[in-house]
Design a protein that fits this description.
single chain; about 40% helix
């Protein structure tokens, strides 16, 4: 069932697992204790945690890619499923309550974010590629400056 709470479409599996689906950016609007009100959200917050074991990665229903299970940035005790392609989150029953109850401070969030990015191979490859391109660009700039000085006789 989909209901609007706090400007967010709260997609709750009311007849099944009691999990909650959040499109990109929606979870961040409801992840603190007093964020949002409404029947769907209240019911989801009362639902006990059901999934405690390991399972195969979920497949994102929006873009059909495997979702990644990791700790939520502001609640390191809670594992969430995130689609890195479309930015959606799936929370098992009880996980939204746990997120709201175990929030991290800004320094802990920054350290966690850094660790999370370090574990994404594409991110590390992109950083190395960017560094190489930056060095090449700086070398070309320095060479161009040198050639311009020689050509124009020191006017630059």
């Amino acid at each position: 069932m989909v209901r609007k709470d706090f400007g967010v479409a709260v997609d709750v599996c009311e007849q099944g697992c009691q999990g909650i689906w959040f499109d990109r950016g929606e979870l961040a609007r409801l992840d603190e204790k007093n964020d949002g009100v409404g029947a769907a959200l209240e019911a989801a917050l009362r639902s006990p945690k059901k999934n405690v074991g390991q399972r195969d990665p979920l497949i994102c229903p929006k873009c059909s890619t495997p979702m990644h299970c990791h700790q939520y940035p502001r609640a390191k005790e809670v594992n969430v499923d995130e689609c890195y392609l479309c930015g959606a989150f799936f929370l098992d029953s009880g996980e939204l309550t746990a997120i709201r109850d175990h929030s991290m401070n800004a320094a802990e969030v920054a350290a966690y974010r850094k660790a999370l990015l370090a574990n994404i191979p594409e991110y590390a490859e992109s950083r190395l590629d960017l560094q190489a391109k930056t060095q090449r660009s700086e070398a070309i700039h320095a060479l161009t400056k040198l050639l311009m000085r020689r050509y124009w006789g020191g006017f630059f």
